[in-house]
């Protein structure tokens, strides 16, 4: 990076300028005396280091002594490059003090090497000077010096005069690159060149802190000093909000009593936008005698541990090394990230393999050409995607050369396609090729060839159909016996064909009777029903209860009790929005709030059972909901507090933690849709999805709709036994919101926007009703899983968007079996407990028992979960995963399924049995 070849116009001018910048700049700086000599008109030149200026370094390297500063560029006694006759011409030299044990070595190393850096170690205080070759085409051959200290002009964030010898690409004048790029075989890219900012986290401003601060100032860093973790996080958060950043964070790690450096580092590393921030820990010297403290710091995300010192020179040198070896590469990586993006979006097909032809990288055009998803391409042998023999490219034992010819590519599910393939080997480490770059082209160079290849459901960009195309031939991920349903199978099922009793056994017919109720309704589909195993009473019980409407339980007993325990109107007035403390532990946890592994139970605990308020505000902030609704944060906060207060804490499952969990999943899905460039939701739709998720089970009584109908509850009467709970959730959401200006998050929307927002929210909440589960799934698959491109028209686009949003909230609502295992088990515990309570009450009140198998005395939790996953979750998750591309959903689901199977085989049945198998952490959570 950055070793741009130089053009040296003539030796005389080079010599004349050799030492112009060699003056000492500070007590500890080591000026180099340099000379540049042209060899036979060649563009390369040597840097001559005078032997007289060298002294032995304690580490075995050679240090440079103070120069005379008179610009003398004599070649006499040159340590590295000899006399300047050209015989010892050093093209560019890398001197590693660890390698250069003596002067002979030193000479050996310094001759004939072509690296672009000279590294010099100085005695005592380790001085690390990096000297790049002189540059310049103006006839003023440049040469100079670098120094590790002083208030000179070698400020990393600033361009230097072209007369000075550049230290890093950042120090070079821009025009140097413009001049020299043409000379490069592989053009380099410039990293960004910001003014570097450092954040010092020191408990107090003692002499160590001062030395660090002075060193930073010496290197022209902007320094901010904070004295606590809270202050540090606050500063970082503010800087993030103002699009600033700290490149370097130095934490005082000398005493964990004063500052918990490990914790601070971990928090920073997990904070958005800080994966490339350089974190340094200043440690006691004694820490270096054992590795445990330092390893813990490094594991927490610290890049380097340095020993405390009050010596400014040592600090300065250490900092210089950090600037060169960590911060600058981080800057370079940020540019590489941009290159990756460019490569990924390129129309041309680019594929990279390692030296044994295993695929390492494929861009989006490759996916299109091969009609495969990235996870089907990456790490596969290249031979898998070629019909042609590849021995021409790489034969065992033969050196790999460039290739240019016609090869036939194997497109998934299709005939081979002959392609013009160009292969360029690249050596990234050493001289043998480590990678091969493949560039495919259609013979004849037809530009838009790939666009003409059949892709699943290709549609105009910008329409919902142009989002990620799925192959729907998803592979089996685990070999745990969980059947992976091909979505093709789902799509091939006759849609809009109600289930009939043909070919059914008596048992199956009985089961189907149970679902006929909902099948009678218009537009219901049931592509999966015939697969229900009637020998599994728990599954049929659960699935039957979930999928059927309440009217099958017609033997209602009269009851005057309403299950809804509290009137909504009384609550509104009494609710004062909870005060949200800027608690650092909560803030730290919320940093992960878009991760699929997010620990909602921990949030429940540390927010004192207000997870929805905290998570909700975080989601609203992250998705710009305040701006989208044109509403103050306080109104949103008050709205969330009221919504949360209307969830029943006494429910084990349907409480505000479940609402927060669904909102979190919704946020994760929206993020993934955005990351995948699937422009399927605008900001308003995102906001509506989050609001629907937050409110979707509000005022849930902890009893099912069937129970409410069977018990003649007021709600069942109100909603005529139809979609009782979901109707109530939607209605009460709007009643509460519109009933109080202080929480009316919609008050600034214009009429039309409000109307559309209301309709979206209601539709999403109603979609969580399970009786229409298969209808929603089948419609979703019919739109997103088919092979045929759909006509682009605004009306059908809107309909498709509705299907997508319904599926999004449905998956979020029942995603618990696809979460990390400890969470999945806790959710299973909570839902089972709620079902048990319902059965208890049904028995007690002599009501029909909706799910007799969910009796706490006899229920097998693993069996219920196996049934739930097999019948409800599995196909939906595959369909959704194929659309959204979050393989972790499937992976977790598979793992959890296997675990439930294992428990089942081991005879672990009751809730108590299952909980006894859990590690202490899970048990602890359960005891709450
Ligand atoms: N892990 C689970 N096991 C069994 N049933 C579940 C599980 N998770 C969710 N459900 C059911 O799926 C339903 C989805 O809609 P509800 O949230 O109204 O109620 C939910 C529960 O009845």
TrEMBL record:
Boundaries of every PAS domain copy: 335-386
Residues binding Zn(2+) 1, per UniProt: 658, 696-697, 813
EC number: 3.1.4.53
Pfam family name, one: PAS
Positions of the UniProt region annotated as Disordered: 1-29, 132-160
UniProt binding sites for AMP: 654-658, 697, 813, 865
Binding residue positions for Zn(2+) 2: 697
Domain PDEase residues, every copy: 572-907
The protein's annotated pathway: Purine metabolism; 3',5'-cyclic AMP degradation; AMP from 3',5'-cyclic AMP: step 1/1
Organism superkingdom: Eukaryota
Similarity section: Belongs to the cyclic nucleotide phosphodiesterase family. PDE8 subfamily.
Protein name: 3',5'-cyclic-AMP phosphodiesterase
Organism: Drosophila pseudoobscura pseudoobscura (Fruit fly)
